């Protein structure tokens, strides 16, 4: 912005204002130049404070931003929570119980989970991630009958190796929440339907490939395989039977062979 004309000499050289009017015009020019700079500075400070608050309080940004360190902390918390819930049940898992196990404050957990139900739902989702990683994803490198067998074998290995200290998380959670209405039950129901759907779809794909008899009922086959696997987890936990997974593995393979035995080998 140019200074007032009266503040310049004819030769273009600045001169000191000599009248009150000239002084007022110079001061007005300085103020007009200073206002945008002050506004930009204030905005920068406001943005900096907001970022600092979000860094120290993950709940302050209402979940819009979750930094990598926060994600690692949340996963570590949830992994501990899944292990506790697999033994003591989801209803036994409270923010107070988890805070005690982790030796942190309740307020620290409230920054990640606003309520007991939110914590339970997050734990179910974490258990799903682990199940998919150990059971489902490795099987999907195969097709048809090989995929069906891999899903069964991976599930039995997951239960036998005690990925969770309390055995299969979803076997226990299904029994605990079968008659409890609410968000947690709905989440468990949805995940178990997806698992049964994976088994059934693998059987249907095997039928389409000519590996399983067309007359076989893929839905019934998936139901029977799942029932046998759930029974293995039940017997393993209740009777501490170390041989049950071997017995059930043989039963599942024989059931699959019943719907493939008439198919000529290639």
Give an account of the 3D structure:
- This protein has 266 residues and is an all-alpha fold.
- It has a domain at 125-258: Tetracycline Repressor, domain 2 (Orthogonal Bundle).
- Helix content is 69%, strand content 0%.
- The protein contains 10 helices and no strands.
- Helix 2 packs across helix 5 (116-139), helix 6 packs across helix 8 (183-208) and helix 9 runs antiparallel to helix 10.
- The chain is elongated.
List keywords for this structure.
266 residues, mainly alpha, Tetracycline Repressor, domain 2, 10 helices, elongated
**Parts with pLDDT < 50 across at least 5 consecutive residues:** 1-11, 50-68
Going by helix content, strand content and strand pairing, the class is mainly alpha
Let me know the number of strands. 0
Shape label: elongated
Largest sheet: none
The CATH class of the domain at 125-258, by name, is Mainly Alpha
**What is the name of the CATH topology of the domain at 125-258?**
Tetracycline Repressor, domain 2
Named at the architecture level, the CATH assignment of the domain at 125-258 is Orthogonal Bundle
Q: Gyration radius, to the nearest Å?
A: 33 Å
Helix percent reads 55-70%
SSE string, helices as H and strands as E: HHHHHHHHHH
Q: What is the name of the CATH superfamily of the domain at 125-258?
A: Tetracycline Repressor, domain 2
Distance between the termini: 88 Å
Number of helices: 10
Content of β-strand: under 5%
- Please give the oligomerization state of what you see: single chain
Query: Averaging pLDDT over every residue, what do you get?
Result: 82
